Amino acid sequence: MKMEGTPAVHGYYMPAEWEPHSQCWIGWPERPDNWRDNAVPAQQVFTKVASAISKFEPVTVCASANQWANARSQLPENVRVIEMSLNDSWFRDTGPTFVVGKSASCSGTPEPKVAGIDWNFNSWGGIDDGCYRDWSHDLLVAEKILAIEKLPRFQHSMILEGGSIHVDGEGTCLTTEECLLNKNRNPHLTKEQIEDQLKAYLGVMKIIWLPRGLYGDDDTNGHIDNMCCFVKPGVVLLSWTDDETDPQYERAVEAVSVLSNTTDAKGRKLEIIKLHVPGPLYMTEKEAAGLFQEECEAKPRLAGTRLAASYVNFYIANGAIIAPQFGDQKWDDEAVRVLSKAFPNHEVVRIEGAREIVLAGGNIHCITQQQPRVSLSIVNNDCFHA
Fold first, then answer.
1. Other CB atoms closer than 10 Å to residue 270's CB: what's the count?
2. What are 175-225's pLDDT values in tens digits?
3. Three-state SS for 350?
4. Keyword Cell cycle, does the record have it (predicted)?
5. Is 366 a catalytic residue?
6. What is this structure's pTM?
7. Who contacts 209 (Cβ-Cβ below 8 Å, separation ≥6)?
8. Is 382 contained in some domain?
9. Is 384 part of a structural domain of the chain?
10. Which residues pair with 167 in a beta bridge?
11. Residue 322 falls inside a structural domain
């Protein structure tokens, strides 16, 4: 059901990621020009991620017709596998941004309390700057997911990826200027106009803009989900490094300055928890050689390229933190310690081998999309207009 108007007008807002989920959506990797060795190593790690999340909430994996049987054979039986055409498997960015409602219909009968935003998508930058040249299948992913779930759909012409926003569920949105103000997204919109759209579609009241994202995150032009996220209202995790010679240090210090000198939508000063990045890590000759890059449709991935690896790129499941591990023992262990302290009521689950995901340009948060769970008994006096 396509909705007219904006989510906020209908009483919808984007909840925080730690609020209850009904399920998690994940795509299935296969393209050989972005996932090395015909995506076999990546599929093994995606299976680990899906399996881990499925212990805490239902999981649906979407795979192409060519890959459905392969995905079904690798994934545990409690994971639903459905067929869907994909250009690639980054469901944080191509799937819908789910919003929850606060209203009842004028008749007094509770209406659906979950809906989705179907943003426009241009492969993180379009023909000239994007990650691949054909994204026609990805443009339909959000619409298909919402149709499967029979949920209301808000369509927006603005180009926006889910990894470029984080919310606290209480009116505050985190993002980066490097991404949302990039000329390869919405050059016809001013910063103020983009803010207005985020407020109208996410139901937020305040946007906190960090200047830049994680160093080396060129694929997404600095998505916030590699750089900074909310732990709870008033508390954020920030990708940090103690190495002052690391280019990430300047970005982290810059972010601390912004975060320390602002308040959230409720007027709270922000507590900043520093989460050290691994490495630095670089793509090896062997890893690059495993990609089919002759006449490829995807952005080339070259040996020696610094990987945009970040422990902030985790998934919050119902009662668990699904955390990437990169084989850097010191910082892997430190990340688990920090996350365990930040989320004392969650079990931190390590996903070994998450390097396979970052080789292709993202990590666990990037490949997942949570669908919130909302009780129909929670209504107010607003009317719901279809």
1. 22
2. 999 999 999 999 999 999 999 999 999 999 999 999 999 999 999 999 999
3. strand
4. no
5. yes
6. 0.94
7. 175, 176, 177, 191, 258
8. no
9. no
10. 173
11. yes
